Amino acid sequence: MLHTHGFQNGQTSVSAVVPMLRLENVHKTYGRGANQVQALRGVSIDVMPGEIFGIIGLSGAGKSTLIRCINLLERPQAGRVYIDGVDVTDYKGAALRSMRRQIGMVFQHFNLLTNRTALGNVTFPMEIAGVPRRERERRALELLDFVGLRAKAHRYPSELSGGEKQRVGIARALASEPRILLCDEPTSALDPETTASFLNLLKDINRRLGLTIVMVTHQMHVVRAVCGRVAVLDQGRVAELGSVAEVFDAPKTEAARRLVKEAAIGA
Amino acid sequence: MLNQQVLNMLWPALWETLYMVAGAVFFGHLFGVPLGILVVVTSPGHILPNRFVHRVLGVIINIGRSIPFIILMVAIIPFTRWVVGTSIGTTAAIVPLSVAATPYIARLVETALLEVDLGVIEAAQSMGATPWQVIYKVLLPESLPSLVLGVTITTISLVGYSAMAGAIGAGGLGDLAIRYGYQRFRGDVMLYTVVVLVVLVQLIQMAGNFIARRVDHRHPSQ
């Protein structure tokens, strides 16, 4: 049922493979004059096909802005965004929308439609893309089955728990058969137990579909649990980038050390 | 008691009121809903930000809302005549009632749509929704309970406004109360008219509340 996009299981052979996502010297500034905030000051990141890439940082580090620059919900003032080798930075209108359909997104506060059932939420992206009704309902039910919520297909979000809502969010994000899945603080509103089962689902999706996943979070244990590589974002810059083990076990920068320390206290 | 003579006056007056109010609710929303949507989507940080359009529409709505109805009704007589061919009568009254209701409805629609969580709008955009899809698949359905209550408020206000339409010979319950009840000292006619108006307003509010509850899934129902 669900498409596999050719790449499997975090095999990141560096040289021959085109990065699924490349951010090149991305800058983003809000406001003008004295109120100006430099959210991103030259961020460059390559995410390889099939990997789960973490972006970690304290609040205000620019994480949310960065992940929104990938599908251009925020437009960078300078720098380029490449999806699978194609420069999409200047995409507008129909080209932009069709690019966005290839990138699923999961949100901290789920952002489900309150007046649609779980099923209605999962069919929504397909409805937008013009998939015929029968087809989208069949696929939505398969996806709800995949995330373990088929029995609650006809429940409204207000009748679901936080963990269940996030599973609907995942099913919805997968509905358009994306090549990249963006997760913006997906576990921040979940309790520890729900977080663990959500992360297992994420790993399962990555393994079974070979989906490239980019996850922004401030929770170090979340990165440890699922990510292969991680970038530490600090004041709009990448302070450190490497495998999770490298970065967390031997942090080289002050920003990374601070995160490790906070996690030790927090946990 | 409620005799045949009074009933013979009440029935047509009730239908005149319902006819005027229904017409004005329809045409008021025909113009007011798009206006309200436009004000919201052009606001800063929304899906089609446009400072100029947003400000101009805001000013137009405020002007419309600040003109007293009785003056508006007289002032737009040429327009009314152009639209329905006459400036007198029940049908003619629908024109000023609709004109008065339009900016009122636009504000109610604006308030309702602004309740929709920006995160949900962002989610739709991240899926590649067009602005039009965001409007009719996200903004309107998500704010439906508030929109229904807005229609209710508008309808009840129009029942009140329609009483003034007697000034241009539109008839209706308010007109009956003024001409018979007040000017001819028919206390019984006055009383029955007011009772009918009270019942009418109650029924409209109850229907509105009922429908709004039925379409509201924002909170657990059980």
Describe this structure in words.
The complex is a heterodimer of chains A (267) and B (222). Chain A has a 6-stranded mixed β-sheet with strand order 6-7-8-3-9-10, with helices on both faces. A 4-stranded antiparallel β-sheet of chain A has the order 2-1-4-5, covered by helices on one side. The N and C termini of chain A lie far apart (39 Å). In chain A, 37% of the residues lie in helices and 23% in strands. In chain A, helix 3 (118-129) packs across helix 4 (133-146), helix 3 runs parallel beside helix 5 (162-174) and helix 4 crosses helix 5 (162-174). Chain A is built from 9 helices and 10 strands. Chain B is built from 10 helices and no strands. Chain B is globular. Classes of the chains: A alpha/beta (267), B mainly alpha (222). Chain A binds chain B through residues 71, 73, 96-101, 103, 105, 107, 109, 111-116, 124-125, 127-129, 156-159, 176, 182, and chain B through 117, 119-120, 122-130, 133, 137-138, 141-142, 144, 215, 217-222.
Question: Care to give the gist of this entry?
Answer:
The complex is a heterodimer of chains A (267) and B (222). Chain A is of the alpha/beta class. Chain A has helices at 63-70, 93-100, 118-129, 133-146, 162-174, 192-209, 220-226, 244-249, 254-266; strands at 21-30, 37-47, 52-56, 78-83, 86-87, 103-106, 180-184, 212-217, 229-234, 237-243.
Q: Which percent band covers the strand fraction of chain A?
A: 15-25%
Secondary structure tally: strands of chain B: 0
Radius of gyration of chain A: 18 Å
Low-confidence blocks of residues of chain A: 1-14
Strand order of the largest sheet of chain A: 6-7-8-3-9-10
Q: What name goes with the CATH superfamily of the largest domain in chain A?
A: P-loop containing nucleotide triphosphate hydrolases
Order of helices and strands of chain B: HHHHHHHHHH
Tell the overall outline of chain A: globular
The profile of the biggest β sheet of chain A is: 6 strands, mixed
Head-to-tail CA distance between termini of chain B: 47 Å
Residue-averaged pLDDT of chain B, rounded?
A: 92
* Fraction of helical residues of chain B: over 70%
In sequence order, what are the helices and strands of chain A, one letter per element?
A: EEEHEEHEHHHEHEHEEHH
User: What is the number of independent domains of chain A?
Assistant: 2
User: Any idea of the CATH topology of the largest domain in chain A?
Assistant: Rossmann fold
